[in-house]
Amino acid sequence: MHVIHLSVECFPLAKVGGLADVVGALPRYQRKLGIDAWVVCPYYDKPFTRDNDFLSIAKGSFFQGSEELHYEILKETENSLGFPLFLIRIPGKLDRQEVYCYPDEAEQWIAFQHACLDWLKNSGTKPDVINCHDHHVGLIPFLTKYANDFKEFEKVKTVFTVHNGQYQGWMNWSKSILLPAFDTWKWGLLDWDGLINPLAAAIKCCDAFTTVSEGYLQELYTQANGLEGLFFSEAAKGYGIVNGIDDAYWNPAADKLISVNYDVESNKKGKAKNKKAFCEKYGLDETLPLLTYIGRFAVEKGADLLPEIVVNVFSYTENKISIFILGSGDTQIQANLQALLAAYPGRLATFFGYNETLAHEVYAAADMILMPSRVEPCGLNQLYAMKYGTIPIVRGIGGLKDTVRDISEKNGYGFVFSDATSEEAVSAIGRALDYIGQRGKMQRVRRKEMELDFSWHKSAQQYVNLYNQL
After folding, report:
1. What 3-state class would DSSP assign to 412?
2. Which residues are annotated as a binding site for ADP-alpha-D-glucose?
């Protein structure tokens, strides 16, 4: 079976969030199951594209409105990611350094989707399934069925994976002239509340849609930024498949980015050595429990609560804890955290930005990770943390609810709280600190969570089962 994954992110080509980690791992695990899985992404002027060899395999052109666009298809020659990677380069559209935040994103993603279908058509490539990831490629299920130039793809099955339903790619109907010519009788499939909505179009037109956890699938029926009724009406073709992690890359026993490697048996000494090296680097007290937050400074992540949580945790614990925060995003949240550094020397440290190596170091060193999310379709940080023996403290929502079981439950291994408030988060942190003080229990929990299997093996098989069903 031939499956093509379409995405604007793929680790290590271009990463902004968990979407990149999924697309960078899932196809590799599917290939182990006998699926001929490819990945097609936009071209970015980034280190990966500069440091690896690519072969130009095709060129073409098409009109986007009145503008003629020329594209080039580049194939990574060494298969270094474990699957064929194809990049689409369009001068002035798909050749930039960043993934998002450009004013013409709608034009970029329309061009990406149009170029991909044009290339597949001209090369005679007809996959069995096209798996589209998030709204940036949400027009594909519509275009394969109703675009005049791509009738040959009408029978190709489309699966749409919702990584975050809050972002939908809305665009004014004036942009419709930029789309490939399509059956205008079907315009309603593109429309939602008077706008072209790529996410809504994908849900209407795809053969099946998946969400990145079962919990998130259920939440979309009541919280989907205006699409609740649509998700409910299309529920028969919805599947919740929890994300996995790449257990070859996220593995403390073999991780080349951390100070000392360790496994389940040696986790106590291994984490202690990593914590010592980390705390020396950032001026923190290694004898204190270390709490961390890793992620975007965004309201949906609950990051706006962090400054208040920091103050209250230090007050509650009488400064008998260290906190390290790694993230970037909302500048006001960052400024509020920056202002706290002087008040808690040797207790609070931060790194503003994204640093892959540092993230690995933090997972290996920290005792606890906090995720106070308001929205969390799956969440990968808690999975990475548990693989490294770091206890998750999470709000019970979406994928966090699916993957973290509270310590009070049978076979529990984390700390779960209900509401996205500072009070609830601090209370959960307090419970975790009390537990950490009981060393024998702490070691048993660490062993338990490190032995949990959240790898892609099971999830990749669920995707394959769905493809076969279609």
Report:
1. coil
2. 15
